[in-house]
Amino acid sequence: MAASKEGAPYARGATGPERFDCSGLTLYAFRQAGKDLPRTAEQQYAHTRPVPSVQRAAGDLVFFPKGSTVGHVGIYAGNDKLWHAPRPGASVRLERIWTGNVRYGRAT
């Protein structure tokens, strides 16, 4: 579902269907798949079951820590890539995961 939103612009606090922030995109995609997620990246992290990187699968959430919180989230697409709404001025896109400092979570 996130792939169908490729090119949609980033907008802080937006949950779709035309504009998204990072957790708004994950929230929207999971709703379309019939799954519930909380609103923010931090809340979504707390709502998922941790998954070791060797067991990650397409559809798992990818969390990017920022200090003691979670600062960004996307949806794992396989092959070390994720769908995400990166930042203001950018749009939803498929991108290679650029750091090893990530956590994976599976929605329950």
List the helices and strands and how they pair.
Blueprint lengths: L21 H11 L8 H7 E4 L9 E6 L2 E10 L2 E4 L8 E4 L6 E5 L1
Antiparallel strand pairs: 1-6, 2-3, 2-6, 3-4, 4-5
Descriptive notes:
- A hairpin with a 2-residue loop joins strand 2 and strand 3.
- This protein has 108 residues and is α+β, with helices and mostly antiparallel strands.
- Strands 1-6-2-3-4-5 form a 6-stranded antiparallel β-sheet.
- The mean pLDDT is 97.
- It has helices at 22-32, 41-47, and strands spanning 48-51, 61-66, 69-78, 81-84, 93-96, 103-107.
Rounded Rg: 12 Å
Instruction: Average the pLDDT over all residues and give the rounded result.
Output: 97
User: Major sheet: order of its strands?
Assistant: 1-6-2-3-4-5
Residue runs with pLDDT of under 50 for 5 or more positions: none
Class derived from helix and strand content: alpha+beta
Please summarize the sheet with the most strands: 6 strands, antiparallel
State the helix count: 2
Q: Please report which band the strand proportion falls in: under 5%, 5-15%, 15-25%, 25-35%, 35-45% or over 45%.
A: 25-35%
Instruction: Tell me the total number of β-strands.
Output: 6
| Helix and strand sequence | HHEEEEEE
Helix content: 10-25%
| CA(first)-CA(last) distance | 18 Å
Question: Which term fits the overall shape?
Answer: globular
